[in-house]
Design a protein that fits this description.
single chain, mainly alpha, 3-stranded antiparallel sheet
């Protein structure tokens, strides 16, 4: 028997095949074709990872250095600073229960601000994360919609449900510590998440440097200068805060710019940036502490107004509409303490450096004019570190030494037996320095202000060097 050969032309065959396929689909027995995508499905933002070709090529040693750096500064030193600052607040609170009139009694704002500066960065980060969400639009045009119960869910509750509540909650105080520990664990077991974790760390450090470490150092310097001495815990806290700020600044120098560079791309270059930033930061923070130690003279109001107006003017001058506003605000606040952010505009680093130095020089000029025009030198208002006080010529002998105790931070006890030629720093008592013959009351202030102003001027040279390094990195991003 001969095989029957289909004599139909190709068009008839294709039409017959299409009819059979449509019949199969109608009966529910069709062939389901699954579309296979080139990339795996992303379930959440945390699961979103870059493909291996986009990951930075890091050796084993450099990856271990990143993990160690994350643990040391982002967890260990951060917890240590919280503990030290909390102990300082506890020490200041205890001073209010002292019954000795010559022991210092901390004002309420000292320990309240010490505690507040610990939690403010994390509360603000959580708040700004909440405010940056896509809120439902409520206006006069939508009032009719709210009258319909079926549409309230779509218009109001669905956008609220889609908020990043997890990120908002994780930014809160204490909760952020658990989040950092989890990120550290993920950094070890999931190298592909390294980039997202380090970016989140940089944003957290912007808040902590601007609103915790910088403000806390200024406050503790002001307290120490007013009392004429520093406690050991204060000294340790100031040193660790300084290291943390300069270390974070050396990372901001590479990451907070138009074309971000990995902060560990060159360990040698980052070391030199760290050293340069340290030379810029030390005179700047000393200047802040000196200026704000005159809080009792109300000069700090003029300083705050000057820095506030100048910083906001600089922010609007350097504003880039295409960039996130919150990031640019944080860059401005960080630059107040340490100009280390290249930013998105040309010469941003150099302009912030020159502007902040000019603010400091103007404030020191105002300070000198005000203090040298005083008619009476009172221990109640002036910091004990920068002034000596005239002796009481009404008693004989009027002075038993160069240092005499102060009662309630308002009256010098000239006839007290505790007057001595050397300052006793091992006690909680407050001592004022009595001017020896031939010394002016404000000579010591002049000896501190003039070197500080000169150091601020010299720091501009380091800022020019830093700007030069930044411009070189901006021209050759591909090589890094």
């Amino acid at each position: 028997m001969e095989e029957s050969i289909d004599q139909r032309n190709p068009e008839e065959s294709i039409a017959l095949f299409d009819n059979r396929m449509s019949e199969d689909n109608g009966s529910g027995e069709g062939i389901e074709l699954e579309e296979i995508s080139d990339h795996p499905e992303v379930k959440s933002q945390e699961d979103a990872v870059l493909p291996p070709s986009h990951l930075p090529t890091l050796g084993k040693f450099r990856r271990m250095a990143i993990i160690l750096d994350y643990f040391s500064f982002h967890i260990l030193i951060h917890l240590t600073l919280i503990g030290l600052d909390s102990y300082i607040a506890y020490w200041l609170i205890l001073s209010t229960f002292s019954s000795e009139p010559t022991h210092f009694t901390a004002p309420t704002d000292w320990y309240v601000c010490t505690i507040a500066f610990i939690v403010i960065p994390h509360i603000l980060k959580s708040l700004f994360t909440l405010l940056s969400q896509k809120w439902p639009k409520i206006g006069l045009k939508n009032l009719k919609t709210f009258c319909q119960c079926s549409k309230i869910k779509t218009v109001l509750f669905v956008p609220l449900w889609n908020f990043e509540w997890k990120a908002i909650f994780e930014a809160l105080p204490l909760v952020h510590i658990v989040k950092r520990c989890i990120s550290f664990y993920s950094l070890i077991i999931s190298p592909e998440r390294m980039k997202s974790i380090l970016e989140e760390r940089e944003k957290e450090n912007l808040y902590c440097v601007a609103l915790h470490s910088g403000t806390q150092m200024t406050l503790q310097f002001a307290i120490g200068f007013q009392l004429g001495k520093f406690s050991e815990v204060q000294m340790i806290s100031l040193i660790l805060h300084s290291i943390y700020i300069v270390h974070s600044g050396s990372s901001f120098f590479f990451t907070q710019r138009r074309v971000s560079v990995h902060s560990f791309h060159s360990m040698r270059e980052r070391f030199w940036v760290f050293c340069i930033l340290a030379c810029i930061f030390v005179p700047k923070i000393m200047s802040f502490g000196l200026l704000f130690s005159y809080a009792r003279t109300f000069l700090t109001v003029a300083f705050i107004v000057l820095f506030g107006i100048g910083t906001m003017a600089l922010f609007y001058d350097q504003l880039v509409p295409e960039e996130p506003n919150m990031d640019q605000v944080l860059h401005g606040f960080v630059s107040v303490w340490l100009p280390c952010v290249p930013g998105s505009k040309n010469n941003y680093l150099l302009k912030t450096s020159i502007a902040t130095v000019a603010f400091h020089l103007m404030c020191h000029t105002i300070l000198l004019i005000q203090i040298f025009s005083l008619q009476v030198t009172a221990v109640r208002f002036l910091p004990l570190s920068f002034h000596c006080f005239p002796p009481d010529y009404g008693t004989e002998p009027y002075l038993k030494g160069y240092y005499c105790p102060v009662e309630n931070r308002s009256t010098i006890l000239f006839g007290d037996s505790k007057c001595s030629e050397e300052l006793n720093s091992a006690t909680d008592e407050v001592f004022a320095r009595i001017c020896p013959k031939g010394e002016f009351e404000h000579d010591k202030l002049l000896l501190h202000v003039l070197p500080t102003m000169m150091a601020m001027g010299v720091s501009l040279i380091f800022s020019f060097v830093l700007a030069k390094i930044s411009s070189k990195n901006a021209k050759t991003p591909s090589k890094q």
